[in-house]
Design goal:
heterodimer; A: 121 residues; alpha+beta; two-stranded parallel sheet; two-stranded antiparallel ribbon; B: 158 residues; 23% helix; 36% strand; elongated
Chain lengths: 121, 158
Amino acid sequence: MTELREFAQRSDNFTKLGVRVLPISVDDQQHAHEAWEKAGNKKFTILSDPGATVIGKYGLLHHAGHEGADIALRTTLLIGPDGRERWRRVSQSVPDIPTADETLSKIKESQEQNSSVDKNP
Amino acid sequence: MILRNQLVLVNGMRVNIQGRADVRVTQHGLKRFNISFDCVTGYDASECLRLWNPKRRPSSGAKTPALTAAGIGNFFTCSVSFLSMSSFSRLMVIAVLLSTYYVGNVMTQTKPYPKAQVASALGQIAPDFALKNQDGKDFKLSEQRGHWVLLYFYRGYW
């Protein structure tokens, strides 16, 4: 929740880079709404994946990660305008949390690489 | 107070704190507590209890096949009166409860997560999906084509 709150506080920085942040978890719609309102400060669309189907599709399942229930491994994953994955960062432990600064810098790096590819195809 | 699985030293003996401790506090202070724990194979559970409370026998105890199969010796739940214990035992109990609580938190914090089934899919088309958003409205990833998107998978359950 800490990182979602931090991302929401820095939402202008993500918007300036033209990035749409989409938080996803196994929480049901009611909890997603709570996260959207409180931690997310209504800045991002929050998606609900109660069956962890999408989380599994991306290979980010933490089996029995919360009291026997499957949850997501905390991950930030950037997708370019072409729909291709540009990078992903998967947390290794509880305190391993992506910061907004680190994430924004990675996004800028990917966008610069993208524009150099566009200029020199 | 929840005690997570961990090994602690009680009088030089390894004890695996397994369950939960219900510490009851009354208006007269700490009165009674219930603690469930088991001992590492090779040690007798009653020996553990003798160290905790030399004057009393455990109120209940059972050897469970599952725990034995898991390499854990006897599993005991004991309920003893805190006030009936010697000062040394009381200090021992408080020290163990506090240290196991602290160590448990540290261990939980630093325990590594399992590896992702897919560590990277760099350059591959991100799998499309359709999910509901916080308002119950449909959302499709493919409709975001042409935009940069940051999927942020969080652990949820908060």
